[in-house]
Amino acid sequence: MGVDLFFILSGFLITGILLSKKKGRISSYLASFYSKRIRRILPPYILLLLVASAVFGTWWHRHWYMYLGATNLFQTLNLSQPAALGPLWSLGVEEQFYFVWPFVVFFWKEAWVARFAILLIVLAPVLRVFCTPLFHDALPIYTGTPFRMDLLASGALVAIVWRRHRQAVETWGRYGIVLSVLGIAGFQATQKFAHLYQASNTRWSNFLIYECSLVICLGIFLWALSGWKVGILEWGPLKYIGRISYSMYLIHELAIDVMAPKFGTFTVRTALSALLITTTYAALSWYFMEKPIIATGAHESIS
């Protein structure tokens, strides 16, 4: 669900950025967007692949082409990779979103972008229901862009509403907590009464569980936008974790895999040691690589 919340946030931020840059020639519009995305995403990504090669060897390089924007298709195509690189599926969804959404925003009027976002929000659960029998397990549904695009589209729709009716979002967004409570209640009901779980991989589970997650995460996001009693989001340590969270996400499964043989898969020592490795790695990556690269890009933009 943390990834679900991230997808909503990404849809919101990316759509807002694209709408604000929607002027002039498409070449400069795309160059500005993609250069910033490359600076932010690619260096930590390449570093992770180098670290993974050092730890696990190079046997998985035979599927190198999948790491060029298709990391969410490993399960669907039944291809092997180190389990530590499993979290990269969400990066594949994000990159595929980047390949398409800038063109949608540039060529369509804002109102049509909003309508298209609503269509995607409706279409994603329909696709999950109809495509469930095509897969033997739940992972292709969980990692497939067509089945998760309702999250990105929800963030995009909120971005458009935010631009036009910010005061209304700030006023009513606090009630997003109610949405989250309803979503949690929906989760409990699907488990207690219908005995449905994500791993069930049934039509009903792939409809209800993902929709409950969307409602919960969207509620949290609207509450954050409202500014109502969100002081915890300004807490220094939490903001710092947010700053280095990209590299933390990339490396966390690898850190767990490295420490599990030493302390056991489900132990406190494994969790704490992996957390220490993850945080240290991400902090070093931020200060010595990511931050300087981002600063260089910002300087070039000003120049």
Helix fraction? over 70%
Total helical elements: 12
| Cα end-to-end separation | 40 Å
Major β-sheet, in short? Answer: none
Shape: globular
Strand proportion: under 5%
Number of strands: 0
The computed structural class is: mainly alpha
Mean of residue pLDDT values: 94
Count of all domains: 2
Q: Any low-confidence stretches, pLDDT <50, length ≥5?
A: none
Walk me through this protein's architecture.
- The protein has 303 residues and is an all-alpha fold.
- It folds into 2 domains: 2-172, no CATH class; 235-303, no CATH class.
- The chain is built from 12 helices and no strands.
- The chain has helices at residues 2-20, 26-56, 74-77, 89-107, 110-131, 139-143, 145-164, 166-172, 176-192, 203-226, 236-263, 268-302.
- The longest helix has 35 residues, at 268-302.
- The mean pLDDT is 94.
SSE map:
Layout: H1 2-20, H2 26-56, H3 74-77, H4 89-107, H5 110-131, H6 139-143, H7 145-164, H8 166-172, H9 176-192, H10 203-226, H11 236-263, H12 268-302
Helix pairs in contact: 1-4, 1-7, 1-10, 2-11, 2-12, 4-7, 5-7, 5-10, 7-8, 8-10, 9-10, 11-12
Short description:
This protein is mainly alpha-helical and 303 residues long. The protein contains twelve helices and no strands. The chain has two domains: 2-172, no CATH class; 235-303, no CATH class.
Descriptive keywords:
303 residues, globular, 12 helices, 76% helix, mainly alpha, 2 domains
